[in-house]
Every structure is written in C-alpha cells, then in structure tokens.
Amino acid sequence: MSSTGRPEFGTGQPADAPSTVPLAPGDPTPVAPERPVVPAEPTHRTKQRSRVARRVGIGLLLVLLAAIVYYGVTLAQVWSTGRADDRDPVDAIVVMGAAQYDGRPSPQLAARLDHVVEIWPTDIAPLVVVTGGNIPGDRFTEAEASAAYLSERGVPESALLLENDGSDSYDSLAAVAEMLGERGLDSVVIVTDPYHALRSRLIAEEVGLDASVSSTDTSVVTGGDSAIRHMKEAAGVAVGRIIGFDRLARLVD
C-alpha cells in the first residue's frame, strides 16, 4: 500500500519474471538454456530392416562356419586316406601317371612305380595298368615310361596294360574303367602319392570302379610342399564332391 492508501501496482510483469534491468557495459549476453534433444523413435520399417540385416549376417556367419568345418573334415580325410595301404586282392593295380623325361620316369613317378614293384609279388592283382599321356614334343608317354620301368624290375609285360591318352586324373581313370570294363573287371587298387590318394579314389568310384588305395611311402613330395599339396587337394575334393569331379576337371583344365 502507498502512503495514500492506494494499492501499489507493478509494471504488469509477474513476480518471478526475469529482470529487464539493462545490462551494464561489459556484462555477458545471457544465453537461453538449450532444450534436450529427444531421439526419434525408430519406425516400423527401420526395425524390420534391422532384423533382416541381423538375420542375413547370422546366416552368412553360419555358412562360413559350415564351410570351414567341411574343409577341415575333408583335409583330415585327404591326410588319412594318404596313409592307407590296402592290399586286398583286386582285378588290377592302377598307377597314376606323373612326369617323365624322354622315357625315364621322374623321381615322383619312380616312387609310385617302386611301390608297385614292392606289392606285385604279393599277388594282389594279375594286371597292372599304367596311365598318362604326353605333351607335344615328347617321344614317350607317361604310361610307356612306366611300363618300361616296371618291366625292367620284374613285372611281366603280359601283365601290363597302358592307358596312353589321359591328360589328367579324371581322363586317365575314365579310360581305365573302359579298358577294364571290356574285360569284365572293375576292382582296382590305386597307387599314387599320399596327397593324391583320396581324389584318385573318388574319381575312380565316380567312373564306375570299385577302388581302394595303396599309397607310396617313398614319395619325393615332403615337408612344406606336401602340406601345401594336401591343402590344395582338400579344396579340390571339397568342390568335386559338390559339383562332380568330371566338371571340376573341365573347370581347372
């Protein structure tokens, strides 16, 4: 109340209104407080996309894990089959070809042939089929070089069959199946390097042969080279089992 008894009235501002007193020179300019930013709620479509992406990621991870397990199991099979030495009686011993030098087997091929010389006296089979063609310019095929080597070491020429045209394992074994089929024969034991044993056996089975393996234990492929070849063979076997070894041979030829 004023001294006159009349009620005092303010300037029309509420009691808690901010002061409108002018700023003194040098006073900082007041800054209005920022309002907190509230994130927008994800839409239904965004949530759906997130769920799909998560499911796709989990699916890809499971496929990758399955592929790793499949390859690991195949590699173990390549390794274990390469240590097989089956000497049960069969219709024929089949020697997988390798390089030859003007009629002389390479050390790798010689190791395979030496294994045949070792098992031949056990009467495991009445026939030996040597395989492998040649490259342009060669005077001899791998089969011819192999036959001469075995003949010199006591395997009768009458027991030798030559498959002279194969340019890869599939072609050679397909031709062997045809040669033996004409004679009413189909059971074989395959002689090759350990890393090559499983793929050779599976190809033989694919072309209709009843196949087992007796790997050479004097292979010249050893150490790191052997490990690398085992891993490559495991990859080939893993793919061949899915698409077929005939198709695989055509793809890598």
Task: Please provide a written account of the structure.
The chain is α/β, with parallel strands linked by helices and 253 residues long. It has a domain at 80-252: HUPs (Rossmann fold). Helix content is 45%, strand content 10%. It has helices spanning 44-81, 107-119, 142-152, 169-181, 197-206, 223-243, 245-252; strands at 92-95, 100-101, 104-105, 127-131, 160-163, 187-191, 210-213. The strands form 2 sheets. The protein has a 5-stranded parallel sheet with strand order 5-4-1-6-7. The model has no long low-confidence stretch (mean pLDDT 89).
Task: Sum up the structure in keywords.
Rossmann fold; 10% strand; alpha/beta; 253 residues; two-stranded antiparallel sheet; elongated
List the helices and strands and how they pair.
Layout: H1 44-81, E1 92-95, E2 100-101, E3 104-105, H2 107-119, E4 127-131, H3 142-152, E5 160-163, H4 169-181, E6 187-191, H5 197-206, E7 210-213, H6 223-243, H7 245-252
Parallel strand pairs: 1-4, 1-6, 4-5, 6-7
Antiparallel strand pairs: 2-3
Helix pairs in contact: 1-6, 6-7
